[in-house]
Amino acid sequence: MQKSTIQFLLINCLLAIIMVSCGSVTKNYTPKKLDKTSYEVPYFKDSKTDYVYKTNITVYGHDLTGIFIAKKINDTTHRVVFTTEFGNKLLDFEISEKSFKVNSIVSELDRKILVNTLRDDFRLLLKKEYQIQEQFENESDDIYKSAYGKRDNYLFISKKDRKLEKVINSSKTKEKITLLFNSENDIFAEKIEIIHQNIKLKIELNYFKSE
Amino acid sequence: MKTKIALLILFISGNLFAQEQKMTAAEIASFKEDVNVVSKKIKTLSTDFVQYKHLDFLSKDIETSGKMIFKEPNLLQWQYKKPYNYSIVFKNGKILINDEGKKSAVDIGNSKIFSRINKLIIGSVSGNMFDDKEFTISYFKSKGQNVAKFIPKDATLKKYIKQIELTFDKEEATVEQVKLLESSEDYTRIVLKNKVINAKIDDSVFTN
């Protein structure tokens, strides 16, 4: 009898844990009336700016460092290049919301799963505009929900200075990718982190001014 | 009209020649000898460098700078100081990296490209590289400078580097610029300045 009670409690606890972790991303946020229907991201939109970042990629405990370069080459497309500190080009992509072209990639990185992951990450990072369907808030941020294929993106705009601080890319039940932005002036982000929740991948970008 | 065209051609080709001219066999021999004599005397070398990464689609070259230190026979440190601290040491078949205080080590066996660049840089100050069988080498001269161009023979290396150009100061016969061409549009240009030859450099410098 006692044994089955313990089992019952264990199962209950387990269920409770599963329920909590499966809860919707928005469960802690208060719904709010929509105050806009679209949001334009300021961070990679200027076609005259070379966006150059010192980069650290941590993937399953391995570190890869180098220089991340992004440049808007036309209305829809960004060129994205990743080089070593010495300047050797490791990959060279052209990315828009709908198109993707690999100009070059070194054979060590030429794995379909990696290329697709980086493509999706960079596409999200460089996305210029979000259509908004729902709005929420918490203490510090206004939160905008935007449909993104099978997933949703949640944009966190700080109430204090109206800056885009975070994007959460989520399935219906689970957060998949988090983008964190640190921006002084709301024109570009000095520090960006791309963190994956389901695989051990983190990309950290630190802006540097070439002299 | 014909004269005009002839003059124009003369003018253009004259200009080209003024910039860069192929060396004769005798000049090549004498240039190699000069570099060999100087490099045999080099026990240590330290120099500041500025690296310009040129990508055709960017509005400006990406500029980084720092210091390079070499000690015979094969200790080498590349240290970027601006705009970030990143230092890389080649030592005993290993690459030691210090990235803003974060340290790591790579076996050169896994990083062929680095070991080749290392060999090349060291070769260019020690004078051994003209005998390097891995490259097809051609020689050019211009005012005050000699240029040696290396085209890799190896297919793997070729994927990374289309051509390496070493520019030598004519008087000193030492390298003053290294240019690594990835394609016709994209290259890395490293300018060496404030060279100091044979200053005393302790082995402990080459730790990271």
What features would you describe in this structure?
- The complex is a heterodimer of chains A (211) and B (208).
- Chain A is an alpha+beta fold.
- Chain A has one domain (25-207): outer membrane lipoprotein receptor (LolB), chain A (Clam), CATH 2.50.20.
- Chain A has two helices and 15 strands.
- Chain A has helices at residues 2-22, 112-126, and strands spanning 30-32, 38-40, 51-59, 62-72, 78-83, 89-95, 100-105, 129-131, 134-137, 141-148, 151-158, 164-170, 175-182, 191-196, 201-207.
- In chain A, the strands form two sheets. In chain A, strands 1-9-10-11-12-13-14-15-3-4-5-6-7 form a 13-stranded antiparallel sheet, covered by helices on one side.
- The radius of gyration of chain B is 19 Å and the shape is globular.
- Chain B has a single domain, classed as Lipoprotein localisation LolA/LolB/LppX (outer membrane lipoprotein receptor (LolB), chain A, Clam).
- By secondary structure, chain B is α+β, with helices and mostly antiparallel strands.
- Chain B has four helices and twelve strands; from the N terminus they run H-E-H-E-E-E-E-E-E-H-E-E-H-E-E-E.
- Chain B has helices spanning 2-19, 25-41, 112-126, 155-160, and strands at residues 21-22, 44-54, 62-71, 75-82, 86-91, 94-99, 102-107, 135-142, 145-152, 163-169, 175-181, 187-197.
- Chain B has a twelve-stranded antiparallel sheet with strand order 1-8-9-10-11-12-2-3-4-5-6-7.
- Classes of the chains: A alpha+beta (211), B alpha+beta (208).
- Chain A binds chain B through residues 48-50, 52, 54, 56, 63, 65, 67, 69, 71, 73, 79, 81, 83, 85-89, 106-107, 206, 208-211, and chain B through 51, 53, 55, 57-65, 78, 80, 82-84, 86, 88, 97, 99, 102, 104, 113, 117, 159-161, 180, 182, 186, 188.
Can you give keywords for this protein?
heterodimer; A: 211 residues; alpha+beta; outer membrane lipoprotein receptor (LolB), chain A; 13-stranded antiparallel β-sheet; 17% helix; 45% strand; B: 208 residues; 12-stranded antiparallel β-sheet; 4 helices; 43% strand
